[in-house]
TrEMBL record:
Protein name: Cytochrome b-c1 complex subunit 1, mitochondrial
Recorded GO MF terms: metal ion binding
Keyword line: Acetylation, Electron transport, Membrane, Mitochondrion, Mitochondrion inner membrane, Phosphoprotein, Respiratory chain, Transit peptide, Transport
Organism: Hylia prasina (green hylia)
Subcellular location: Mitochondrion inner membrane
Length: 457
């Protein structure tokens, strides 16, 4: 027993030691502009992926959904590996292939054994340079996407957030959904998909990221071998500029009394990715906390809003969010409640916002900072999360920010900073509101707007 205790103590690392022992992210830029970044460790596996600066924000009303369609087509065969040969080759390695499309980025990544890294790089290069776009596969994926769109309509949380973007950024590219409209998916052609790839899949808009038991030098050598054919973005290329998306304080209400629960999202305009205010706003969200009826703790929740939700049965769940884009963001909260609890929950949530602006305490900030540190260290679990951090950081910030720097930024936050930054973004601002379901009790917009400030004597 004594020996086991000594072994456990010897293997434990403090929080500070953990931050100091994180491998440095190595970065190399190839001649064609492709950035190659990696974080080496002693893992037997690795995750290698491509993060591309492309998404629904780069689409117009006619092509909205093209990026999501291309993501579906990417795994369905290349010119070198027609049909299902691409997926079969990935499976033969015992690897896992995945990808996603968001409003500002697209990602394709493979998790495999570390020894197979060169093969994985070759597969990813084939995927983005030689996508077959076979007509039969296009029609098959068209049917699958249309079915997915129907299923997404039943996910009221996703519907609410799509409505929130539609009203907050109305008339701009950020108002588009990632998946596109049913009409667009029905009419997009092979030429549209090929044009999307040719326009956006350029080397300077890509990051080849890797994490796990790999060598950065070998990764760079593999990238030079397989990615030299990815074109550089020349001045004359028709790459769309990232248009400014102006925030609008407005609302969308989709009332349906046949639904059992109401979904409400309220947001103000937040900062873009690189703005240092983001760290303070994340601390503010950690103070608000999150809640679900499945949580334990009852009235003893550390979050004041969660304690009120339990005591007065205000909602089924709530969660704050801070969604950032290149030059703007949405800072707000989303809750699900019974039809007759909407007004009370909205009142308590907005009052919590006002309290953040006026009377945040140091003890709350300390608790919130510890929560953020725990969430930050949790990102170290698994090569996929580390790889995603590398790729997305290089797209968002132009560099990979080490966790030690994030920890220093979190440590610098105090109660006064939270009050000042929350006042800057929340106090007396016009919010955007999206509401779905039995929302008769949701007050008029002007009443909600009037709760964005306090009259203090």
């Amino acid at each position: 027993a004594v020996l086991l205790t000594l072994t456990r103590k010897r293997g434990a690392a403090t929080y500070a030691q953990t931050l100091q022992n994180i491998p440095e992210t190595q970065l190399t830029t190839l001649e064609n502009g492709l950035r190659v970044a990696s974080e080496e460790s002693n893992q037997p596996t690795c995750t290698v992926g491509l993060w591309i600066e492309a998404g629904s924000r780069y689409e117009d009303a006619k092509t909205n959904g093209a990026g999501f369609f291309v993501e579906h087509m990417a795994f369905k065969g290349t010119k070198k590996r027609p049909g299902s040969a691409f997926e079969k080759e990935v499976e033969s390695l015992g690897a896992h292939l995945n990808g996603y499309t968001s409003r500002e980025q697209t990602a394709f990544y493979i998790k495999a054994l570390s020894k197979d890294m060169p093969k994985v790089v070759e597969l990813l290069s084939d995927l983005v340079q030689n996508c077959a776009l076979e007509d039969s596969q296009i029609e098959k994926q068209r049917g699958i996407i249309l079915q997915e769109l129907k299923e997404m309509d039943s996910n009221l949380t996703d519907v609410t957030f799509d409505y929130l973007h539609a009203t907050a950024y109305q008339g701009t590219a950020l108002a588009h959904t990632v998946e596109g409209t049913t009409e667009n998916i029905k009419r997009l052609t092979r030429a549209d998909l090929a044009s999307y790839i040719d326009t956006h899949f350029k080397a300077p808009r890509m990051v080849l990221a890797a994490a796990g038991g790999i060598s950065h030098r070998e990764l760079v050598d593999a990238a030079k071998q397989h990615f030299t054919g990815v074109p550089f973005t020349y001045k004359g290329d028709s790459v769309p500029a990232l248009a400014r998306c102006r925030f609008t304080g407005s609302e969308i209400r989709a009332r349906d009394d046949a639904l059992p629960l109401a979904h409400i999202a309220l947001a103000v305009e937040g900062p873009g990715w690189a703005d240092p205010d983001n760290v303070v706003l994340n601390v503010a969200n950690a103070i608000i906390g999150r809640y679900d009826r499945t949580f334990g703790g009852g009235k003893n929740q550390s979050s004041r809003l969660a304690a009120l939700a339990v005591e007065h049965n205000l909602c089924h769940s709530f969660e704050p969010f801070n969604t950032s884009y290149s030059d703007t963001g949405l800072f707000g909260f989303h809750f699900v409640s019974d039809p007759l609890s909407i007004d009370d929950m909205m009142f308590c949530a907005q009052r919590e916002w006002m309290r953040l602006c006026t009377s945040t305490t140091e003890s709350e900030v300390t608790r919130a900072k510890n929560y953020l540190r725990s969430a930050m260290v949790a990102q170290l679990d698994g090569t996929t999360r580390v790889c995603e951090n590398i790729g997305s950081h290089l797209l968002h910030y132009g560099r990979c920010i080490p966790l030690e720097e994030w920890d220093a930024r979190i440590s610098a936050v105090d109660a006064r900073m939270v009050r000042d930054v929350c006042s800057k973004y929340i106090y007396d601002k016009c919010p955007a509101i999206a509401a779905v379901g039995p929302i008769e009790q949701l007050l008029d917009y002007n009443r909600i707007r009037s709760a964005m400030y306090w009259i203090r004597l």
